């Protein structure tokens, strides 16, 4: 029997609750979901299709690109660029903004995405994923402009991510809660499995790459030491969990609670993650789930990007842990 609450039906049901809706955003989300299905198949078959290695090229981030990075990028560029609803697109794998293949002057939106987050883990059976964020054009009467991407996260229209692991997940929000779907391989459809995901206010898990401990700043070290210290009243120590795949660590955090940290360090003063298509969409999801995401000084969604590939520290989790982290930052920095 075909499930009744598929992603497409859920999206269109939400659309009906917005009287002024034109259906464009619904089409865009279903196009992204189709891209996710195709990428999921590429990930599953990469081992025997020769897609696990490097391309020999370096992207704008200065990182070696994987064959699967480029395959996933091509899939999303083709599907979204031909939808007619986007004027411009930004991908982690592209140096600059890309004009949609069939972009129209009256297209309402621009989209930025990381086509295959965590691709260095391909071949190790660690989950990887896709992250996306959608903005409405600043001026609806003009063609899409580069500056349409340089908006604060408070202006995000929709954002989400997928995870390619033991199951294929699709999690998204249009500003009315966070909803999770799981790909049913029998029917080839995403099925609603978690409606209105809510992050626990207080958790028991912290997640961070402690290999960078020697080059963290003093406030970060102090916070991690405090969360590992035995304190019955505070409920510490927390358990340490770190996969090393952004989407996986973040997904666990919004479901189980606690805190995920990808902070700055002495070698990377603005961190490693990209603000526009990694930090901002996940911060949007975190807030919609009742949590919070910060860079150590302010909320991620209050930062206005200065360029499309700007980097940013990223700390996300439940309100209790993020408030605690920010207090330590303020107290230690004086």
Describe the fold and architecture.
It is a single chain. The protein is an alpha+beta fold. It has two domains: about 5-195, Fructose-1,6-Bisphosphatase, Chain A, domain 1 (2-Layer Sandwich), CATH 3.30.540.10; about 205-334, D-Maltodextrin-Binding Protein, domain 2 (3-Layer(aba) Sandwich), CATH 3.40.190. The chain is about 30% helix and about 25% strand. It has seven helices and 15 strands. The protein has helices at about 5-15, 25-50, 65-80, 220-230, 245-255, 275-290, 320-334; strands at about 55-60, 65, 85-90, 100, 110-115, 130-135, 155-165, 170-175, 180-185, 190-195, 205, 240, 260, 290-295, 315. The chain has an eight-stranded mixed sheet, sandwiched between helices. The chain has a five-stranded mixed sheet with strand order 12-11-13-15-14, sandwiched between helices. The chain has a two-stranded antiparallel ribbon with strand order 1-2. A hairpin with a 6-residue loop joins strand 3 and strand 4. Helix 1 runs antiparallel to helix 2 and helix 4 (about 220-230) packs across helix 7. The longest helix has 26 residues, at about 25-50. The N and C termini lie far apart (about 60 Å).
């Amino acid at each position: 029997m075909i499930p009744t609450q598929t992603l497409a039906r859920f999206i269109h049901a939400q659309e009906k609750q917005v009287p002024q809706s034109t259906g464009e955003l619904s089409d865009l989300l279903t196009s992204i979901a189709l891209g996710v299905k195709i990428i999921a198949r590429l990930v599953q078959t990469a081992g025997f299709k020769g897609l696990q290695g490097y391309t020999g090229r370096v992207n704008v981030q200065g990182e070696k690109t994987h064959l699967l990075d480029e395959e996933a990028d091509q899939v999303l560029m083709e599907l979204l660029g031909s939808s007619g609803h986007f004027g411009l697109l930004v991908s982690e794998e592209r140096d600059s903004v890309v004009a949609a293949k069939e972009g129209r002057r009256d297209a309402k939106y621009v989209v930025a995405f990381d086509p295959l987050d965590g691709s260095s883990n391909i071949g190790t059976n660690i989950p990887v994923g896709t992250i996306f964020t959608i903005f409405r054009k600043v001026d609806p009467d003009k063609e899409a402009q580069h500056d349409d991407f340089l908006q604060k996260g408070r202006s995000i229209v929709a954002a989400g991510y997928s995870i390619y692991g033991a199951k294929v997940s699709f999690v998204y929000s249009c500003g009315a809660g966070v909803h999770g779907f799981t790909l049913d391989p029998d029917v080839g459809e995403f099925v609603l499995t978690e409606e209105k995901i809510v992050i626990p206010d207080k958790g028991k898990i912290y997640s961070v790459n402690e290999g960078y401990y020697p080059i963290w700043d003093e406030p970060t070290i102090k916070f991690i030491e405090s969360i590992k210290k035995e304190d019955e009243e505070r409920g510490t120590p927390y358990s340490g969990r770190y996969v090393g795949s952004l989407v996986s660590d973040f997904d666990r955090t919004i479901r189980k609670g606690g805190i995920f940290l990808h902070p700055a360090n002495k070698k990377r003063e603005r961190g490693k993650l990209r603000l526009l298509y990694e930090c901002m969409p996940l911060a949007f999801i975190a807030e919609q789930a009742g949590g919070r995401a910060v860079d150590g000084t302010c909320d991620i969604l209050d930062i206005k990007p200065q360029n499309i590939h700007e980097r940013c520290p990223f700390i996300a989790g439940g309100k209790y842990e993020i408030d605690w982290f920010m207090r330590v930052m303020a107290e230690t920095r004086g």
